[in-house]
Design brief:
The structure is a homodimer. Helix content of chain A is about 35%, strand content about 20%. The first copy, chain A, has about 675 residues and is α+β, with helices and mostly antiparallel strands. Among the domains of chain A are: about 45-225, no CATH class; about 450-550, Maltose phosphorylase, domain 3, CATH 2.60.420.10; about 550-670, no CATH class. In chain A, strands 1-6-7-11-14-13 form a six-stranded mixed β-sheet. In chain A, strand 6 (about 450) and strand 7 (about 455-460) form a beta hairpin. Chain A is globular and about 85 Å long. The mean pLDDT of chain A is about 95. Chains A and B meet through helix 12, helix 14, helix 15, strand 16 and strand 21 of A and helix 12, helix 14, helix 15, strand 16 and strand 21 of B.
Chain lengths: ~675, ~675
């Protein structure tokens, strides 16, 4: 069964939960990001993204004017990121910012594409078209399009694949170009991306005289498969397959480029061994899940069983050994990397927003390979928790790192936690997370649904309208729900009679299969791998009522997660909860959950919309004793004093929206 | 009242506990260290310490032969540490190793001095004399004696006070020279140290044309006060006072040397503000306590009340906010430094052995200023726990870092914990801790006792004989005890009749003043600041029987220590306990202490001598629940399962003597 994400233009999301997020992206994030790309936000580090495209364009103009007399720049390395002392000092023909700065435009245009697909906006489209003109004007006649080397000297282009993100920029350009093309039908940027990919196809490969390398930061792999599926051009598939197959083959390309790496396994770039031999998720978490997503694409497209095996092993490695309860991945800030199995510290967590987004990419692709909720449960978990936590409720500040426990003083005074911020930050010098959230949220409809020829898979529950085509007949599916506040979902299916249409509803694992589904005059449906398949539609309109048991739960981690020993966390449906100082006072660590665990739910509107908070019977404990040293730090214990408290918990994604304070997901249980 | 440490030659320690340690140092550590200094231990990084003295001596010979034709080396920086590819490749006239390598000799000769003082050994003395000849042959005619600059070029000597430890080496040389002089009466090395100090006195100071700097790594301060008190030469006192007074004065000397430091407070070197304004212990912990020790010396010698105030504030800052229960200090490996108040992580602790040793130096000096157990309680705590833990029971391996919780896998796989070792290491490239333990243990008698004109202060209880002089009459005090296994101490005082002699016995704070003292025919004594003063000796022989209540106790940390929230530790007398995997199995974190706390003591002989272990009623807990995600990492909680266990605890200082495994000092309490 071939499963595709639903074409985003065939889904309209009108949902109490998600519309707030998509509107925030449309009204706040995308416009703000455009200002950032153009260095018009005084308090943010200038991006120089559009500046660089203009500078490269100027060079092209010069080249065309001078013809044979044109003297191309000779490359000299100026550093991973270059900033002028003052923005005003920037020269119009120089490159500034991080050397992967081009990708900021691509991420923006991708979000714009998704947004336009579901919410046409002439003004925004005009701005986007103008930006595309600037970008395309920077492209070299041979198709190459990375402003860092165009401006600084092409003689060293592709000379540092490990660190100089040209192929990463190409990958993002493709993703953005395809999204914009699919939304608007305009192919100018798509053609530019194709020409860049054609150039790369000519330069990279196994053949003699070609570069035998592969991307230092993966993404080109999945992007090229997407370009292949959009255009049907075999060479993009070939190039993507080459990148995946070549990775980690001996002699290791990056050791050749960087001889100092010899002898140390290159986990960071997932280039230590060939991908088909990889079974443990290692290294930089974002790089890893981008690679695994490309591998899953390849397994689907080529039917490579060995590669599928690796994908499944890597998935299990993440989900069974290396994932926070929030769907966060990457437990250590050292290399923004996966740590060893079961090492999931809460207070020094990295759990980068982008890494969880990459996990969603991987999950969707794994579902295409194997139709099981084991993938989409995790997709939902990451989305509602570790990803949405990345953006403030006003869409104006962002978390890069998503810790599960915060003591603000420690973040400020302990260098080991300096990556952990107690409040969201305006924008980052290396700004991957905000645009990544933007592109994911804008296209959430494409994650909510998947389709095969005759089946609509409902992965996520949100108010929406879907048009599904079966053999030229259009079926309209309307979903109404207050999810995740409520577990009730109503689905109208119109026009399915006689089409062989099937509805496949995900029964999340967290329900423990406690659900009811009223299918009216239809059969009850069959549960398979966590999906309830309902078929036999015979009337013009059918109504299906699904109710998922949405009760609060106490949850604990595998005992091998030593950081969570003796602790429990709280969930309700897919939503992970946390306690904040704002509701519970300082010193959250002195609070213990009473046994038996008693959780009440309450509807809350203090965030400006309805959300469900929890109240748990707990006690604030203190130890009683006599002083024994003159030191007041340590005392003889005599007894425990317990003062009962109701611990208030809010959805994790909403934390740090009411000022700075302590936060914790886990609590000791007495 | 002026308090002095007792002259080490007037104490003979013959104690079931301490003699084992001092014999280990005498028979294992000192000889091994001598091999190390001479690069004769194949498995250890060569030290090049004696090599460098020989190389500098060769240069001197050349200088004397060539006279005016001698061309001195011009300085070029070769790095903080230089090692040849192979030991055999070392050139006889080159400097190798760390640039503070000279100090390894000084620490060794200091330990040798203390050892010879209490245990004459002709063979060792001969070796030491030979070494001293080599060292003295390296000294320049002007008195300068740091082989790094003698060999590499004197033109840059004292040009990098912050990082190039010349004054640190001088400090250690003085400490070693005085110890050796006091033990043997031989003054060759003492004279060399004086000449070096004279040279420095001529070069440093407030006067124009002199260097206005001070040591980057403190120790010269307390060493110079010691030299002053040994020789009576005022200029050493002056120089020490200058170093202390000048430190942190604006303009900051290190900012001048290292302009990149401008604008960041120099906590690391305790040079952010003048010392009299310092109230919080900050920066590199060893540097800090060495400085504070020098400050306390100065406060005593000069009677400077303001300086005394700073010393007291800094003491309180350490002891009330920044000290582990083991007497370990320096909570972060970043800069081997103090962290912010109450930040005392157990698993990433630094708690360097040397820092606790420095705390003992500081404590002894504070006691000279203020006769209170508040200082000597901490001295005892550090000695019996965080310092002795530094050395293996066979004297052949050492901990630099003394964590309070260890998961061996994490130490190996988590870069954030790579400073934490689950077993002691043979020897370190930067080998400060082993010789520091050696010199402290060898002179433990001088820490056990202090004296004023008429009083003998007994700080630590150990089997020993002391000769105390009052106005030309010799009193003999004999102490017999099994401390710390038992709290019973018997003291014979002979020849005190009519001398006005007073015995001042420390009643440790951990007894909560539960003790009995049978003074026979004498008055009961008066308790003041934790010392029981017994006087009125009228017979030739008096026997005093002291019994300190030595019962096991559960102990907890200030609730502001968030890492220890909900946890208790165990002590008995001054001894902190820990649990090891060896006795209790893996996954120590699943064990919780049952309430009410029930602790039994047992005599144990598995370490080759009698020690007291504890057994605590506890439970191994596991959470029961159903799987809910397909992921096995997180599950719905339904109940707690508790399997009763007896948690076995051993003295913390003995951990990691039975192979590698988990260790923990703190445990959750239900």
């Amino acid at each position: 069964m071939e499963i595709r994400p639903l074409d985003i233009k065939r889904v309209t999301v009108e949902d109490s939960f998600w519309s707030r997020e998509t509107e925030l992206v449309r009204k706040e994030v995308i416009p703000y990001q455009w200002e950032i790309l153009n260095d018009r936000v005084p308090e943010a580090t200038p991006s120089f993204c559009m500046h660089n495209f203009r500078a490269a364009g100027l060079l092209g103009k010069k080249m065309r004017t001078l013809g044979r007399d044109f003297e191309p720049p000779r490359y000299t390395y100026k550093g991973f990121a270059v900033f002028p002392d003052k923005k005003e000092d920037a020269k119009e023909d120089e490159f500034y910012g991080f050397l992967f700065q081009d990708s900021d435009f691509s991420k923006w245009i991708e979000a714009v594409g998704y947004s336009l697909a579901v919410h046409p906006d002439k003004e925004l489209e005009k701005i986007a078209d103008g930006a595309i003109d600037t970008v395309c004007a920077a492209q070299l006649p041979n198709g190459y399009l990375d402003t860092y080397y165009i401006i600084n000297g092409m003689d060293k282009s592709f000379s540092d694949l490990r660190d100089h993100h040209e192929l990463y920029c190409m990958g993002h350009l493709i993703e953005g170009a395809v999204a914009y093309y699919e939304a608007t039908g305009k192919d100018k940027l798509l053609n530019a991306a194709k020409r860049f990919a054609d150039y790369v196809y000519g330069v990279f490969g196994r053949e003699e005289g070609k570069i035998h390398g592969y991307p230092g930061h993966e993404i080109a792999e999945m992007a090229l498969f997407r370009l292949y599926e959009t255009t049907g051009e075999e060479r993009y598939r070939e190039l993507a397959e080459y990148f995946i197959d070549q990775r980690g083959q001996a002699p290791l390309y990056f050791e050749n480029e960087h001889p100092e790496m010899k002898g140390r396994p290159d986990y960071y770039h997932q280039a230590h061994i060939p991908v088909r031999e990889q079974t443990e998720a290692v290294g930089h978490a974002v790089r890893a899940v981008y690679l695994y997503s490309g591998m899953a694409d390849m397994a689907r497209i080529t039917g490579d069983r060995e590669l599928l095996g690796s994908c499944k092993a890597l998935w299990d490695s993440i989900v069974n050994e290396k994932m926070y309860i929030t769907g966060g991945i990457g437990a250590t800030h050292i290399g923004e990397s996966f740590s060893f199995p079961f090492d999931l510290p809460n207070d020094t967590a990295y759990a980068e927003t982008c890494a969880s987004i990459g996990l969603v990419f991987f999950a969707r692709r794994m579902f295409s390979l194997e139709q099981s909720r084991k993938y989409t449960d995790i997709m939902e978990l990451a989305l509602y928790n570790g990803i949405l936590s990345g953006m403030a409720l006003d869409g104006k500040s962002f978390f890069y790192v998503n810790p599960l426990e915060v003591l603000p003083e420690a973040c400020k005074k302990d260098e080991r936690k300096e990556h952990v911020k107690p409040v969201r930050q305006k924008w980052f010098g290396c700004a991957c997370c905000p645009p990544n959230i933007a592109r994911l949220v804008s296209s959430v409809g494409a994650y909510a649904y998947g389709e095969s020829d005759d089946t609509l898979f409902v992965h996520l529950y949100m108010g929406s309208k879907i048009r599904k085509n079966i053999s030229g007949r259009e079926i309209e599916i309307t979903v109404k729900t207050d999810y995740p506040n409520s577990g009730k979902v109503g689905i109208d299916v119109k026009g399915a009679a006689g089409t062989g249409f099937r509805l496949a509803l995900r029964i999340p694992g967290w329900t423990s299969d406690n659900y009811t589904c009223d299918t009216g005059s239809l059969n009850d449906g069959t549960l398979d791998e966590g999906y309830l398949y309902i078929g036999g539609f015979k009337d013009d309109l059918h109504h299906v009522s699904l109710e998922l048991e949405m009760k609060p739960r106490a949850v604990f981690a595998d005992p091998r997660v030593s950081e969570d020993a003796q602790k429990i966390a709280f969930m309700r449906g897919p939503v992970v909860y946390c306690a904040e100082e704002k509701d519970n006072g300082k010193n959250l660590k002195s609070i213990v959950i009473s046994r038996p665990v008693d959780i009440k739910e309450k509807t809350d509107s203090e965030f400006g919309f309805e959300s469900v908070s929890l109240e748990v019977s707990a006690a604030r404990r203190s130890f009683e004793g006599a002083e024994f040293f003159e030191s007041t730090l340590y005392r003889d214990y005599s007894d425990v004093r317990e003062d009962p408290v109701d611990l208030k918990l809010i959805p994790y994604a909403l934390w740090a929206n009411r000022g700075e304070g302590e936060m914790s997901v886990y609590f000791f249980i007495t």
